[in-house]
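Predict structure. Chain length: 595.
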Amino acid sequence: MGYMHKYLDVDLSTGKIHDKELDTELAEKYIGGKGLGAKILYDELNTGIDPLGSENIILFMTGPLTGTSVVTSGRWCIVTKSPHTGIYLDSQIGGKFGHRLKKAGFDYVLVRGKADFPSYLNVHSEGTEILSAEDLWGKGTFETEAILKEKHLKSEVASIGQAGENLVTYANVMTDKSHMAGRGGSGAVMGSKNLKAVVAGGTLKIDAAGNDFKELTRIFRERVRTNPGVQNRHEIGTMMWVNMSNEGGFLPTRNYQSGYFEDAEEISGEKMIEENTYAHRACYGCLIACGKANKWDKGKYAGLEVDGPEYETTALLGSNCGLKDLAAVAKASLMCDDLGIDTITTGATISFAMECMEKGYLQQEEISNLVFGNDDAVLQMIELIANRKGLGELFSKGSKAAAEEIGHDSIDFAIQIKGNELAGVEPRGSFGMALAYSTSDRGACHQRCWTPGAELSGDLKRFSFEGVPKFVKESQDERAACFSLVLCDFLPFDVPEMVEMLNSATRFNYTPESYLTTGERIWNTTRLFNTREGITDEDDTLPKRFYTDKMPEGAAKNQFIKHESLENAKHEYYSLRGWDDRGIPTKEKLDTLGI
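Prediction complete.
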């Protein structure tokens, strides 16, 4: 119950497809989604394999609550070895695809090898087949999805665009036109396998069983409906953070040179809702409906319609590139989605390029005036990066790889950790995120732990590491478990409620304590994977800028991260995790967790 008890093992090199039985004991130990995917990845891959080679695998994972009557149960995730960072990657995604994959009869799909020609995988409850995608190669994700949905009725599609085909290391996987597995380059892994898309269709019943589960989710659904925080998320969505971040002094601005953007109001969620939003969008099974459909009737981008943009996109393609026109940000977001490329890394990489140009480290070449605030240059760069043409080739592997080629002191302001660009929180304005970013298992990430809310509310002391190691460790464990169910960041449930739903759906006997221990087991598994790939304590750090440059303005003015303070917080975090001073899980800890 809660599981379909089957998975697909697809070898694109041989064309062989096998239905296999789910290992229920392993599922109980790692739940599903992120957790089960991490365990499979660790067991399947040899050390040092090329993420873009045929040896890599890519997993399309659901969880025991995916597709059930639980609110936000439309979530699913992709797990693979990242071509952008060379380490572990899971990328969480919404929409309707996860629900359809489950209805096709599978808890997950494991894809290995490489097809001889452009292909797509049609996963259906009546059978699975590998089909030619030669007529789709070169098309964007929007057109690809439309064609495949017309061909395969009552199906959902996860596809790549030109960026994935061209092996841009931060290419994403798109579904439902506005939902993406954004970070880390899962789209490039699909491209490397000649896999244009996965189509999922089926009508099987998702058996999360009895009346107790249905009644429980009905009660919980009503709690969500009446939750005050949910109302705010429904009304403005993630864009509520634009003004909040700016007022807090941690809105990334001009390649993280500042945490305050003087034109934040122009790209804010409040202004968007007032002037542009005409509908709310929701993933499968969600009544929060945080997505926003927007249109612009006048100005340079008159006629533009787009679902979004979201906060992280607006922070990185907007303020971080100096853009003060939300329509321009929305256009950039739409282009990224259709081309199939991560908006966070794209925005951060373009802003890095702008600063390199500002310092005289780059020539203008084919880009017209690549400076902060020039929306035309941003749009041109997106096209060039996705197609790896001209200056886009240099930046197609992100800011770290570009800095290594550009030289000078550019690595100091290439804003990345372990190769993954930072998201929409400036760490000098949020010390908690400094530790969360530096210890994240997929490189800099905002989804493993989110400290700004606690810092603004006073639950964590601002501009201090006091209490931060414990907060970060516990948040990472809890998120690892939640992303294994698979449920959404926005679901306002506490651990006991999560456990109650999980037990009711699966008939497992989790307690809140054992559930969090499972999250810890998952986090240690991803750390083992990364350690095996060469990650050490020296990689759990920040770009030099945050140690040496004081914040120039805003609520965090004059703040900077003292290297020694972060190091002390990091080693306190290691101690809480039962890791040694090099950040490696000890045998005692692994034995305790049953790894």
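Summary: The radius of gyration is 22 Å.
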